[in-house]
Each structure stands twice: as structure tokens, then as C-alpha cells.
Specification:
The protein has helices at about 5-10, 20-25, 45-55, 65-75, 80-90, 165-180, 190-195, 195-205, 220-235, 245-260, 270-275, and strands spanning about 125-135, 140-150, 155-160, 185, 210. With about 280 residues, it is α/β, with parallel strands linked by helices. The model is unreliable at about 95-105 (pLDDT under 50). This is Putative transposase.
Length: about 280
């Protein structure tokens, strides 16, 4: 097969006949590998965002005021406006300890949470997805992953330097093409996942739509555990210079996560072992 770099160079983003996704499919290239340029930021902002990313695992219930005060105590000269901007970049989603009334954007339909008291007993019963911030030496990128909740298998993932709805929809469509359809698909209420382009894929495949309650900690616990594993077992241990090296590193990590990493919650089996049992059942 032609070397990967040569195949990437053959991609024509201006081609009006074949879109980028189709060209990637024909050349056997993962689309996210094309978008390897990290988003640039000021050095101090990158430092704050990396600390924010780690802080989330300790205090996900902190809002903008507490975080501003916390970072001011750490010695940063930061105000609420700047903190709010950086929280948005790292995709910080405050988890509320008490129920919080929220004004819902009526332009985006929200769907009920279907997983409460649901027994997840088989593969492809429930899938879930989310986006997380990935810090790099001179910038950052975003990672999306789709997981099967029964087996914890990472079914698909992708990198991008934006959090666009089209990107999320393409990853969803690709995952369905590879693995078929789940019965239920769970997301948070992020605008990417409530967008028409994303929702229409689920509806056209007759997949039930489930959405986390805003600010509810336990609704998306499995994907949050995945992000903690990815970051503490890999991302924080390596300081990636560019998107290509990040992509290769994550490719190796997810291969390890699915095929060789023993999960205590799976009785020390791997996600692939559990997921592949569906063909035997």
C-alpha cells in the first residue's frame, strides 16, 4: 500500500465531485488525520487550560466564579471574562450538586434521558459519545469518541481543531457503517449533538435518542471515566508537538485500551472480549 503521507497528499479539499470524506474512504485514510494543526493560544492561556483540564476531575462542580478565585490564588492574573472564555475552549461542563433551573434554547429540541434504571445487558444496546479537550505543547485539539456502554469498547474516535456539528455527524455515520446501529444513543445537550445534521442521522436509522440532564454527573459517567483513563494513562504523560504525533499516539492507546487493557468492571476482561461475545450469543 502507498505510504500514509503520500495518500494524505493526494487529498484535494477543493474537489467538487468527491468530498473529503469519500476521498479518505477511497484512500483508506482516517479523516481526522487531515486536521492535524493544533489551535494556537498564548503560552499562559495554554498553561491555565492544561490545569483546568486536570482540575475538572477534582472539582467538576466548580463554576466560573470559583475557578477564577482558585486560579487567582495560584498566582494568575485572570478575571471572570477570561476564565469563562478558557472554560468554553476546554469544554468545561459544570456539574451541579443541586438541581438547577435552566432556560432551554427552544431552537434546539432536547430529548429525555432514557438510561435511568435501564439494565444494559448486551452490546450495541446503548452507545454514548462526548468531546474532550486535548492539551498540546503549542496549542490544543479536540477528541470525540463513541463507546459501547456494555463492553466499554471505543467504537470510533476522531481529532479536530474545532467542535463542529458536521465533524460529529461524520464520525457517527462512519461508526454506524462499521458496527451497525445501537438501540439507544446517549449524548449531552451540547449544540453539536442537538443539531439537525446529527439528530437526523439517528432518526433515519431509527435509533432512540437519549440526552443527559444538564449538569448531571452520573448521566454520562462511562464516557467521563474514558476521558480520565485517556488523559492520565496517555495524554498527560506525553507532550505532543503536532496533530500527527498526537493522532498516532492516540491510535496506539485506543488499540491498547480495546485489546489489551484489563478492566476491573469487566471482571478483568478487555472491551474487545466482551464486545465480540455478541457474535457467539
Amino acid at each position: 500500500m502507498t505510504p500514509l503521507q503520500e495518500r494524505r497528499e493526494k487529498i484535494d479539499k477543493e474537489d467538487k465531485v468527491l468530498n473529503v470524506s469519500k476521498q479518505c474512504e477511497l484512500l483508506s485514510i482516517h479523516r481526522s488525520g487531515l486536521y492535524y494543526s493544533p489551535v494556537a493560544e498564548k503560552e499562559e492561556n495554554l498553561q491555565i487550560m492544561e490545569l483546568l483540564d486536570k482540575q475538572y476531575f477534582d472539582t467538576p462542580f466548580y463554576g466560573v466564579l470559583r475557578l477564577t478565585a482558585h486560579f487567582q490564588k495560584l498566582g494568575f492574573q485572570i478575571n471572570v471574562k477570561r476564565m469563562r472564555r478558557l472554560m468554553k475552549i476546554v469544554n468545561w461542563k459544570t456539574i451541579f450538586r443541586e438541581p438547577k433551573t435552566t432556560i432551554i434554547n427552544k431552537l434546539h429540541k432536547k430529548y429525555p434521558y432514557l438510561l435511568k434504571d435501564l439494565k444494559i445487558e448486551k452490546t450495541n444496546q446503548v452507545w454514548a459519545t462526548d468531546i474532550t479537550y486535548i492539551p498540546m505543547r503549542k496549542g490544543f485539539m479536540y477528541l470525540i469518541a463513541i463507546i459501547d456502554l456494555h463492553s466499554r469498547k471505543v467504537l470510533n474516535w476522531s481529532l479536530s481543531n474545532t467542535m463542529g456539528a458536521d465533524w460529529c455527524a461524520e464520525v457517527l455515520q462512519e461508526t454506524i457503517k462499521i458496527h451497525g446501529c445501537p438501540e439507544i444513543f446517549n449524548t449531552d445537550q451540547g449544540s453539536q449533538f442537538t443539531s439537525d445534521v446529527f439528530i437526523n442521522i439517528l432518526k433515519s436509522n431509527e435509533i432512540k435518542i437519549s440526552m443527559d440532564g444538564k449538569g448531571r454527573a452520573l448521566d454520562n459517567i462511562f464516557i467521563e471515566r474514558l476521558w480520565k483513563s485517556v488523559k492520565y494513562e496517555h495524554v498527560y504523560l506525553y507532550v505532543y508537538e503536532d496533530g500527527i504525533s498526537l493522532y498516532k499516539g492516540l491510535e496506539n492507546y485506543f488499540e491498547f485500551y480495546n485489546e489489551r487493557r484489563l478492566h476491573q468492571s469487566l471482571n478483568y476482561k478487555t472491551p474487545n472480549e466482551i464486545y465480540e461475545q455478541k457474535s457467539v450469543a
